[in-house]
């Protein structure tokens, strides 16, 4: 009887274990309202064409630095997952994580990050940082428009790419620059804020 109750207790404990957290430092990492976006940081906004990039819809959110820490402001994964791609080229540094949760698979992308500590093929957890926001020196070098980090949540597996010798651990690409219509966006991506609203409890 005691054993049966113990098994039941363990089952309940594990089944209500929280899975998702916001990806930034906060006294409450279950509170999505702690995520502040930059002025043009909302999901789905039109991004104007640039020299090498056509006009497209913003496929993620641009998350503001939560405090004035310009030294080592941490970036966390939103859930447990496996690092499947790592890109470390300056302002476009990026990690892609595959999450298998409740029989579903989703992918998250963290971009414009720096000081990456996560390794390719490493299992990461939401209680340990994988990178940080750019520090003051990096922002002075690359531009202060990068004073945020870009988060995407994907419904569809990222595109496998052939790594080159400069970025040998960059194995996947997101659909960041190929979403021109609302239907493209909805095919590949969740609105991260909506997703977290539904999944943080
Ligand atoms: Zn962005």
Quick overview:
The chain has 201 residues and is an alpha+beta fold.
The CATH class assignment is Mainly Beta
At CATH level 3, the topology is Glucose Permease (Domain IIA)
Which class best fits the helix and strand makeup? alpha+beta
Question: How many extended strands?
Answer: 13
What molecules are bound to this protein? zinc ion
Mean pLDDT over the residues: 93
Count of alpha and pi helical runs: 4
The CATH superfamily is identified as Glucose Permease (Domain IIA)
Number of domains: 1
Characterize the biggest β-sheet: 7 strands, antiparallel
Order of helices and strands: HEEEEEEEEEHEEEHEH
* Content of β-strand: 15-25%
Poorly predicted ranges (pLDDT <50, ≥5 residues)?
none
The dominant shape is globular
Distance between the first and last residues' Cα: 32 Å
Whole-angstrom Rg: 18 Å
Architecture, CATH level 2? Distorted Sandwich
Q: Helix content range of the residues, please?
A: 10-25%
